[in-house]
Amino acid sequence: MSIPVVDVWGQVSPKARSSFPPAPEPHDEWSLVGGTAWIYYSPLNRRQLVRPVILSDGFSGGSSNLDQLWHGLEENGDYRFISELHATGRDVIILGYDDRTASIVNNADTAIECIRRAIGERVGRAKLAVGGFSMGGLVTRCALARMEHDPSMPDHETSLYFSYDTPHQGAWFPIALQAFTHYATDKWGDSPGVGPLLRQLSGLLNSPAARQMARWHIEKVGATPTQSPERVAFLKKLDELGGWPRSVRKIGVANGVATGNGNGVKPAATAVRCDGGTLHDTWLKTQAQGDQVVARLQQTDDAATSVRTSGLPDIDGAPGGLFTVPSPAGDTGSFGLAAALMALLGNTLDQDVISTSCFIPSISAVDAGDIGDQKALYRPVTPADSALDAMLCAGRNEGHTSMTEELGAWIVNEIVACG
């Protein structure tokens, strides 16, 4: 599997990669309110901004990391996205944020400033291409829609909007994982070593951006999984802006398949179980339909806590972009993250951990249906189903924001076709 552009867990993962090879020095760098833009001119344009393409970072902890973004975009082992854009005469603007967990609406302000700066710095009158990876697609979607909706703002002068495995219909953070994270933080959040990691992860899941993206969210153990008030407000705001930018061609890709074939994760399976010094018979299950106990959490010598869900679909196994797939670099996936935390807490894991699961269902990435609908999740996706003008789903269910030739080359061709 290719290296992802956006690593969801980032440095809050116990096995996070500590560093990446340095990116080439940008030709220019813009300090923006709430973020930074790194500019790489095409060799064909003599260090002038002629045909700007803005690539927005997505959701993770802390601030954007240029080295990591460059690695995912260019040194992923499959497709050199930046080089291919450069070869067509496009200048690349990598847009990062000071806080990737901040409200999508707030980071959209940073994207708007970046778009305006690109228009001001541009030589000639070529239209922009603007989009992003994961949450970055929502940020830029919101930014372009707001620029069209607000008469006090200038024309965004953009011909193409693109998204890359973006949760247009919401993201899936397993309820069992959310519950375990909050439970462990309540119990051991003040412990040396593992405590800060638990607090950061719980904070990440409860951050404004996560609440806005998550189709089902719980802020603490025992809460009922539902859309958070922050998500409801965000969707209302997006609707007030018209939902989408109207004067652009809208395209998007999914790291999941269009066939309706799932990723092989079975519903109601035990994803991870442990026993040991701090936890007794603690387990998390994959999501199933109907009423279900998705987690049993028990601190040693304490009463057990059961976590229940009702009315959710079999979404862990749905077609779509997967949580970061386990690799020699130490990536943990979704339930694999819980397994790593259980081990850090001094427990022994059962074998056969189900490490990863669906994160962005295909129908969410191409806005082709409600991810709360079991039938829609597993139904083949056609272009007619999508709110986008053009879409492409991957040939297999692969890691979220994995940069592949299949998806990357299609986007490059679409950008060129739009002039």
Q: How are the SSEs ordered, and which strands pair?
A:
Layout: E1 28-32, E2 35-40, E3 52-56, H1 66-74, H2 81-87, E4 91-97, H3 104-121, E5 128-133, H4 135-149, E6 158-164, H5 175-188, H6 194-205, H7 208-213, H8 229-240, E7 249-254, E8 270-276, E9 282-285, E10 292-297, E11 305-309, E12 320-322, H9 335-344, E13 347-349, E14 358-361, H10 362-365, H11 374-377, E15 390-393, H12 405-417
Parallel strand pairs: 3-4, 3-5, 5-6, 6-7, 7-15
Antiparallel strand pairs: 1-2, 2-4, 8-9, 8-13, 9-10, 10-11, 12-14
Helix pairs in contact: 3-4, 5-6
Structural notes for this entry:
- This protein is an alpha/beta fold and 419 residues long.
- The chain is 30% helix and 19% strand.
- It has twelve helices and 15 strands.
- It has helices spanning 66-74, 81-87, 104-121, 135-149, 175-188, 194-205, 208-213, 229-240, 335-344, 362-365, 374-377, 405-417, and strands at residues 28-32, 35-40, 52-56, 91-97, 128-133, 158-164, 249-254, 270-276, 282-285, 292-297, 305-309, 320-322, 347-349, 358-361, 390-393.
- The strands form three sheets. The protein has an eight-stranded mixed β-sheet, with helices on both faces. Strands 11-10-9-8-13 form a five-stranded antiparallel β-sheet, with helices on one face. A two-stranded antiparallel sheet has the order 12-14.
- β1 and β2 (35-40) form a beta hairpin.
- α5 (175-188) crosses α6 (194-205).
- The longest helix is centred in the first third of the chain and has 18 residues, at 104-121.
